[in-house]
Design brief:
By secondary structure, the chain is mainly alpha-helical. The protein has one domain: ABC transporter involved in vitamin B12 uptake, BtuC, CATH 1.10.3470. Helices cover about 75% and strands about 0% of the residues. The chain has 14 helices and two strands; from the N terminus they run αααααααββααααααα. It has helices spanning about 5-10, 15-30, 35-60, 70-115, 120-140, 145-150, 155-160, 165-185, 185-195, 200-205, 210-235, 245-255, 270-285, 290-320; strands spanning about 160, 165. A two-stranded antiparallel sheet has the order 1-2. It is globular and about 60 Å long. The two termini are about 15 Å apart. The model has no long low-confidence stretch (mean pLDDT about 85).
Length: about 325
């Protein structure tokens, strides 16, 4: 099929593409240092980390659920990595951090699916419970990663550079490629979208919707934990508030990227671009010396605008079809 402007507009991630182009144009016009290597490099690196969380959130939203605990899981996995490194070494601490994150996702999935409790309630409880666990585990103080661990080859693989590119960016691209393969080239993707789009029909076609949603929750938590470890291998000092409010940024990025909160529709590339939009605005507001409340206000306004825009776009595409 030949490309046309209409085909671009019909993409579920059109809002994220438009937002990215707009951000680049506006910030280029108002900030001479926008395209400097340090500024853009930092923005892309943080966008990659948030993008990993947003892609996991996108999977859950496509399944018609939501996960409000990803920021706390991000912090828990990162702190587990630093805390357990002394006993398990770098490889063992990374595996343990990821296993803890996956376990949180599994437990929450069981509460949602077996307990028949809405995912918003379960994961809101998970947000507070996991954050409280961080305080209980650390006593409010977290040590930094020792120098020997910082120079470990695995730490450098996750937190250094790969062929001159910051490792977080490379890993985000790897995650995007693998999840895209899983979503668009394997049965899991069809089952996930069917589960979120029309659960009754999916069940009638033999789709194990509970298993599909469980996989989405586990992958979401796993990616959040992976993002936390990516962060701390690059900046090996942390605090107990690590990941605070990141759940809102991840949800906003996924929705900006075209994920419908009603389920059955979304884009992984859009989620990453949504993360870039949010991170870019945060950096620019900091450079302009704006109060931190401006950023929170922006995220709230953009989230509402994205929901309205995506709903209107879906309605327009439906009428055109």
């Amino acid at each position: 099929m030949a490309w046309s402007p209409g085909s671009l507009v019909r993409r579920v991630d059109f809002g994220a593409i438009f937002g990215t182009v707009l951000i680049l144009a506006v910030f280029t016009a108002i900030d001479d240092g926008w395209w400097s290597g340090d500024t853009l490099g930092s923005i892309i690196r943080f966008s990659a980390i948030l993008g990993c969380i947003a892609m996991g959130q996108a999977l859950v939203i496509m399944a018609r659920e939501i996960d409000l605990s990803v920021g706390s899981v991000y912090g828990l996995a990162g702190i587990a990595f630093i805390t357990l490194e002394a006993d398990l070494g770098v490889p063992g601490a990374i595996i343990a951090g990821l296993a803890i994150a996956a376990a949180v996702g599994f437990l929450q999935a069981m509460a949602v699916l077996r307990g028949r409790v809405p995912s918003m309630i379960v994961t809101l409880g998970g947000l507070f419970a996991v954050r409280g666990l961080i305080y209980l585990w650390t006593g409010g103080t977290v040590r930094s990663l020792p120098e020997a661990a910082r120079t470990h080859w695995l730490t450098r693989l996750f937190g250094g550079e790969v062929f001159g590119i910051q490792a977080a960016i490379v890993w985000a691209l790897v995650v995007l490629a693998l999840l895209s393969l899983l979503l668009w080239r394997m049965r899991f993707g069809n089952r996930l979208l069917a589960t979120g789009g029309d659960p009754a029909t999916a069940l009638s076609q033999g789709v194990r919707t509970d298993r599909t949603k469980t996989a989405a929750f586990v992958l979401c938590s796993l990616l959040s934990g992976f993002a936390g470890i990516l962060t701390l291998t690059n900046a090996p000092q942390t605090h107990v508030t690590l990941g605070d409010m990141m759940e809102l940024e991840a949800i906003a990025a996924a929705v900006i990227g075209g994920c419908a909160l009603a389920g059955g529709r979304g884009s992984l590339i859009g989620a990453v671009l949504g993360a870039f939009v949010i991170t870019s605005v945060r950096f620019e507001l900091i450079r302009l010396g704006a109060p931190g409340s401006w950023y929170i206000t922006f995220v709230g306004i953009v989230l509402i605008a994205a929901v309205i825009f995506n709903h209107s776009l879906a309605f327009w595409v439906g009428r055109r079809a």
